[in-house]
Specification:
15 strands; alpha/beta; six-stranded parallel sheet; Rossmann fold; 17 helices; 2 domains
């Protein structure tokens, strides 16, 4: 069997020296079952003269890590990837700050990755490239003579064609995607947006909206929504609910209902809008004063980028305003925690929550929504309030779906969730958990690789999977 080579900006090492294993690590592990492979990416270290890549062997998988030059990293990651691609792909053209030198750094790092990866590749290797950091990687590898099957998966949204064209060098970048054999998206909406760009702007031809032809290139577009380890996260939440930390949380709440939001501190997550909705809820429903507490957990990220410092200040200001306006000596309406927590602690908080708040302004999928559902006690589940602009809204119909820009709708949803009868909560949760089981993270990786290596396979894996069960 051919090897699988996974390439991503960061690598989830198995021994604790890298970032904590998340959804991608679980997916890679599942895709690597019964085959050998490589996971290649940045080491997390910067060096003036990056040395040869380092290798960590674990079972049948090699983790191969390369350092980056500080200037390259800054221009590639803090610059073009996260100050241009991230905001535009999240529909925030107004926040994009283009710099030609940073675009050069982005291209340079992709060439560097290709240069480091090229001698490691074998002719029949199958390559799976992840996310917006590495859009040009296939082009760089093709120029080095590699004809391997290469797939690309975009974890974040793909906006409409009119917004894509606001991206400087969009023609060069998006044409680079056509060097992949398979391009995967989270939702049908993302795939449709890309399809319209391909046909209207680039001039690609397609017989069915899945297979495309452009000059001498043939490639396919598919939909592969990322899942979570539903059973594993449920077990984690069950075990964590018996911990001393869980007892401390229950004692601190004093019988109050808990709303919880868990988000990286990012302007795309809609945290300020969420807090505005909570303020409107407290204005309208005085009967819930001192009977409910909202907990917002938002570890900081990308602090070198000014827009992230701005959102940090805005969230902190809202927290102070709400607590100052509604709080009492014996009650803090809003608790704000701006540091990382262990997954077990997050699972415990979710299981205890009466309401889960997942209200991004735009999100590719948002696995927090799915983890909240997985964490619940099926006999007494909490209610998920979910943005219509999260990719997961297409799957989680049992949530209360809201427009995060509408604070009144959010306040109404909070009231509805707190008053929802047990049987309705159970039914909604049962439906959503069935979706999680059908689209488990362990199926996602193999389904993408299957579609990449067997061109006749379905390119909307989720609907095909449901129809076959």
């Amino acid at each position: 069997m051919s090897r699988l080579v996974v390439i991503s900006n960061r690598v989830g090492l198995p021994d604790g020296n890298g970032p904590a294993p998340g959804g991608l690590a679980v997916a890679v592990e599942a895709a690597m079952r019964n085959r050998e492979g490589i996971w290649f990416g940045w080491s997390g270290r910067k060096a003036e003269a990056p040395g040869p890549p380092t290798t960590v062997q674990h079972d049948n998988l090699q983790y191969i890590l390369t350092d980056l030059h500080p200037q390259d990293f800054d221009e590639y990651y803090n610059g073009f990837a996260n100050r241009v691609l991230w905001p535009i792909l999240h529909y925030r053209v107004d926040l994009a700050e283009f710099n030609e030198a940073e675009f050069g750094g982005y291209q340079r790092v992709n060439e560097f990755f290709a240069e480091r990866l090229s001698p490691l590749l074998e002719e029949d290797d199958v390559l799976w490239v992840h996310d917006y950091h590495l859009i040009p990687l296939a082009s760089a590898l093709r120029r080095r003579g590699h004809g391997n099957r290469i797939g690309f998966f975009l974890h974040i949204p793909m906006p409409p064609a009119d917004l894509i064209t606001a991206l400087p060098h969009h023609d060069e970048l998006l044409r680079a995607l056509t060097e992949y054999n398979l391009i995967g998206f989270q939702t049908e909406n993302d795939a449709s947006n890309f399809a319209r760009y391909l046909t209207r702007v680039v001039g690609a031809a397609t017989p069915d909206g899945r297979r495309y032809h452009l000059e001498d290139q043939h490639f396919r577009v598919g939909v592969f929504p990322v899942g979570v380890d539903a059973a594993g996260f449920r077990r984690l939440a069950e075990e964590a609910s018996l911990s001393q930390a869980a007892e401390d949380l229950r004692e601190s709440l004093g019988g109050r209902a808990l709303m919880v939001g868990v988000d990286r501190l990012d302007y795309s997550k809609g945290i300020v809008n969420r807090l505005d909705g909570y303020e409107r809820f407290l204005e309208r429903h005085g009967q819930w004063h001192n009977r409910v507490t909202c907990l917002q957990i938002s570890p900081g990220s990308r602090q070198d980028i000014p827009e992230y410092a701005d959102i940090d200040a805005a969230v902190s200001a809202r927290v102070g305003h709400i607590n100052g306006r509604f709080g009492a000596v014996s009650w803090v309406p809003l608790r704000y925690v701006a540091r990382n927590h262990q997954r077990a602690d997050i699972a415990m908080v979710m299981r205890h929550a009466r309401i889960g708040l997942v209200t991004p302004l735009r999100d590719g999928m948002n696995l927090v929504a799915k983890e909240f559902v997985a964490a619940q006690d099926p006999d007494d589940p909490g209610v998920l309030i979910l943005s219509q602009f999260a990719g997961s809204a297409a799957e989680l119909g049992g949530a209360l779906i809201i427009n995060p820009h509408d604070r009144d709708a959010l306040a109404d949803a909070m009231q509805k969730a707190l008053c929802m009868p047990l049987r309705e909560r159970q039914a909604r949760h049962r439906d959503m958990y069935a979706v999680l089981e059908a689209n488990d993270i362990r199926f996602w990786g193999p389904s993408f690789i299957d579609a990449l290596t067997r061109p006749g396979r379905a390119l909307n894996w989720l609907s095909n999977h449901y129809l076959s069960h």
